[in-house]
Amino acid sequence: MPTLNYFVSLMIKHLLWVLFISLVLSGCQTPSDVRNDSNETDLEAGVDADVQQTGFIDTVQPVSPDNDSTSDNTMSAATNTPQPPKDLWIRMRKGFDLNLDVDKPRLSSQLRWYSSHLDYLDRVSVRGERYLYYIVSELEKAGIPSEIALLPIVESSFDPFGYSHGRASGPWQFIPSTGQMYGLDQNWWYDGRRDIVSSTQAAIAYLTRLNKLFNGNWLQALAAYNSGEGTVLRAIRKNKRAGKPTDFWSLDLPTETRAYVPKLIANPEKYHYKTHFIANKPYFESVNIGGQLDLAQAADMANISIDEVYLLNPGFNQWATAPDGPHRLLIPVKKASQFRTELAQIANGDRVTWVRYSVKSGDNLLLVAKHHNTTVAVLEDVNNMSSTMIRVGQELMIPVAGNKIESYTLSSHQRLLAKQSRAPSRNRIKINYTVSPGDSLWLIANKYDTNSKTLARWNNMGLADPLRAGKKLVVWLAPKEDNSNRSVMKKVTYTIRSGESLALVANKFRVDLNDIRKWNPVVGGQKYVQPGDKVTLLVNVVGG
What we know:
By secondary structure, this protein is an alpha+beta fold. It has helices spanning about 5-10, 15-25, 45-50, 90-95, 110-115, 120-130, 130-140, 150-155, 175-180, 195-215, 220-225, 230-240, 255-265, 295-300, 305-310, 335-345, 365-370, 375-380, 410-420, 440-445, 450-460, 500-510, 515-520, 520-525, and strands at about 50, 165, 285-290, 330, 355-360, 395-400, 430-435, 470-475, 490-495, 535-540.
């Protein structure tokens, strides 16, 4: 969630300052619990620790704009009238409106971080290339200073799939309750907190309300956006009672918040950083699709990659748009005309792939829905069912993905699998764990000698996310190391032979029986092992 990074990114007098904000906060930002129910914040250091980055967005380059980035003529030779700048950064700088003529003594070490992380500015600029023109335009319509267009850099590093342990999601890092308050639907098919259009409109509405609450004081409003309006209001009341000033710099806010300001206003101009060119023209168009549509089919019709479709439409969780909407897709401007032409030629029945399923003994609607990667509500709707009762032999029409499910690489399920497959470091052993009734993140983490926050990060979860029985988690166990012998641990897969028990295997490989059970919760949970069962072991291959 937002941390006074927010506050930060807006405190810039010129373009490089703004970029610097985003850069500096990449190393120290955390999403705040600003919008939690208690209006309190739980600030922690480290963007990587709090906002889980997907790693996918940097692999898909934005569609190249048809634009000459080598010059920025602002006057028409024929009419001698001002022309809009070609570079969006120049337009943004003209809209900066926050007065930061301040001289505070807290500014020192930030330039060192900036000077050694110039590549971060390029990275987030490329990420933001898809979204910034729309955000800047909408802020201008709302009369909001254009510095605020960079808040998603501070919040999520412009990764629309970024997710924090506080359950904040999307480019503007809304938590579930505040997202719902501002009309951002969240269901199996769709999460409006990640929708570029919907979340931007929600952020504008929220910031506008905060600015009004604080009588037009943008610094206080921004502080409230990241640390909660209650936190800022209490700090203001406290200063008033003490006869102290109530400007942001004078408020008794969290230490981390106070430290962000110096990180933002240190002047990096002397490094002569050249900003990544972003065309001052729309990147995408919103196309009314009129109903549900398979995203792989949409990619084919627009002649773009399916990953590009997801990056422009990150609100969609599954392989298709949501049955109940929004019935629109953002498509690159260069591809929108072709997409509309192809869309007009598709029959309604061909927008998604359908299978006919005959109900079998032992089936229930939930099992059928899970097997076909859909929901009970969808099956009820498309089959005009008045209840969830089904009977053997009943025929159900089920919408399914048109391509192999693995090809929808940025769907919610595939992102989770990718996250769970990446080892946090070398020589870690991966444990697949199935949640049992009564389990909690704390209990599972304690069982495997880790902590709840780390376990949540391994599984792309927030600490307060529901943990339902049957959910699949991964645990990455660190090898035990005998420093006296400088032992090296190697992962071994061993097949149980006839007559062997886990105790015999433990003795054979000189490992603890309880460790084997911990490393292999499925086999280890059985009363007896059978020949052919496979167990994973961490074996000392040097010392011993």
